[in-house]
């Protein structure tokens, strides 16, 4: 049995209920260390990026970025178009060459091929959906889980659903749509399916590139709740432009600008930072005036 299968099968995926006060405590900055254990006893790892640099033909898209995302955080990565957000995620996941260091727990990721990084528990979504539209929801999850079944078996209607797939279906709220073709899902549901595909792969670091772009209000709320659920035993990094969504669900924020870290802290700290206001508005916010996307 492969290490992955073992890990998958040994895993309890029943989402536990948190009280409101526990959640508030988490959001308001309970101390987080680089590695810790979740309530279910799973090891939680943090992401540590040091002096990361990515250049394309002499143009430096990521220019010496260092950041620490503690285990179990929901870190939002924001910044204007071209700031280097997606390139940073590409570097972490091995899609572009980079210098510096990227560690998840005690593992160095830089220099490893994409599939090895993925096997270390790093999962990412793209802004455009990558689900198989002609297959059902459950078939998409099965493929992601790497179930060793032939395609003929796979495309036949399933009689029983593997535990980890069933658990992911519940977590992403698509249990009632298991047999629906993924191509017929609403936009938001496709993003949830993508997240579910990372869950069945046992991703312990989720990097989501603009997950709520194009979503309705209700879909955003559901996505935020999903992020809170998955972060109980995973570390989550979200690239997002939607400030309302950020204010509601970020536990911490890093602002990138022109390939560098411009500001970092809580939502309130980042919103109050004149350098951030300058980049977003072209000028700092005068007290009592101006409305910006950054205001609470
Ligand atoms: N493969 C590439 N070759 C050349 N330049 C690239 C490549 N990928 C990204 N860039 C450039 O690197 C810079 C950062 O791009 P990136 O996609 O990381 O920005 P971003 O912060 O994700 O922006 P957005 O909010 O628009 O998605 C941009 O100037 C972009 O044009
Ligand atoms: Mg981008």
Automatic annotation (TrEMBL):
Spell out where the chain crosses the membrane: none
Q: Which SUPFAM superfamilies match?
A: P-loop containing nucleoside triphosphate hydrolases (SSF52540)
- A GO cellular component entry from the record: plasma membrane
**InterPro entries, from UniProt?**
AAA+_ATPase (IPR003593), ABC_AA/LPS_Transport (IPR051120), ABC_transporter-like_ATP-bd (IPR003439), ABC_transptr_urea_ATP-bd_UrtD (IPR017781), BCA_ABC_TP_C (IPR032823), P-loop_NTPase (IPR027417)
Single GO MF annotation = ATP binding
Query: Where does the ABC transporter domain start and stop, copy by copy?
Result: 47-283
Answer whether the UniProt record assigns the keyword ATP-binding to this protein: yes
Q: Please list where the region (Disordered) is annotated.
A: 1-44
The record, for Pfam families, names:
ABC_tran, BCA_ABC_TP_C
Q: Which UniProt keywords apply?
A: ATP-binding, Nucleotide-binding, Transport
Q: Which domain of life is it from?
A: Bacteria
Q: Which PROSITE patterns match?
A: ABC_TRANSPORTER_2
Per the UniProt record, the source organism is Micromonospora profundi
This protein's name: Urea ABC transporter ATP-binding protein UrtD
Q: Do you know which NCBIfam families this protein is assigned to? A: urea_trans_UrtD
């Amino acid at each position: 049995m492969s290490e992955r299968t073992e890990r998958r099968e040994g895993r309890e995926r029943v989402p536990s209920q948190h009280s409101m006060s526990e959640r508030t405590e988490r959001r308001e900055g309970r101390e987080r260390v680089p590695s810790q254990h979740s309530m279910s006893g799973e090891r939680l790892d943090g992401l540590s990026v040091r002096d990361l640099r990515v250049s394309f033909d002499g143009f430096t898209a990521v220019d010496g970025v260092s950041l620490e995302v503690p285990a179990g955080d929901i870190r939002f990565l924001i910044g204007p178009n071209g700031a280097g957000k997606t390139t940073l995620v590409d570097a972490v996941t091995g899609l572009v060459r980079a210098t510096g260091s990227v560690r998840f727990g005690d593992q160095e990721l830089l220099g490893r091929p994409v599939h090895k990084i993925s096997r270390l528990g790093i999962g990412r979504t793209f802004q455009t959906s990558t689900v198989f539209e002609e297959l059902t929801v459950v078939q998409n999850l099965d493929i992601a889980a790497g179930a060793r079944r032939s395609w003929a078996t796979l495309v036949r209607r399933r009689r029983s659903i593997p535990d980890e797939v069933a658990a992911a279906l519940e977590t992403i709220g698509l249990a009632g749509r298991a047999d629906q073709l993924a191509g017929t899902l609403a936009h938001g549901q496709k993003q949830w399916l993508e997240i579910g595909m990372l869950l069945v792969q046992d991703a312990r670091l989720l990097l989501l590139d603009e997950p709520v772009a194009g979503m309705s209000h209700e879909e955003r709320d559901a996505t935020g709740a999903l992020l809170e659920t998955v972060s109980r035993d995973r570390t989550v990094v979200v690239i997002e432009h939607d400030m309302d969504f950020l204010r509601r669900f970020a536990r911490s924020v890093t602002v990138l600008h022109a390939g560098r870290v411009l500001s970092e802290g809580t939502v309130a700290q980042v919103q109050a930072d004149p350098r951030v206001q300058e980049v977003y508005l072209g000028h700092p916010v005068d007290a009592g005036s101006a409305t910006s996307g950054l205001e609470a």
